[in-house]
Amino acid sequence: MKGAAVPERLQRFAERFRRPRRGRYAHSPAAVSEAGVEALPPAPFDPVPLATAGALLVAGVALGSGYMEDRLRE
Q1: Could you give the CA distance from residue 37 to residue 64 in angstroms, rounded to a whole number?
Q2: For FRET with 21, which of 4, 35, 60, 65 sits at 20 to 30 Å CA-CA?
Q3: What is the pTM of this model?
């Protein structure tokens, strides 16, 4: 960013910026310095891996029970 208007525009942006209501940065910001990112708040719970594991488990049980039923009929 360049130009004489940058500080003024950044100030206006900071005044109008609304904090997120939910998510990683809702309760605390990232800590940064000239060296870069110092610390990040913990990531929120992500239900996708748990739901995927549950769906795979249900599919495995269904396939396994179907296989066992076929074997017991023989």
Answers
A1: 48
A2: 35
A3: 0.50
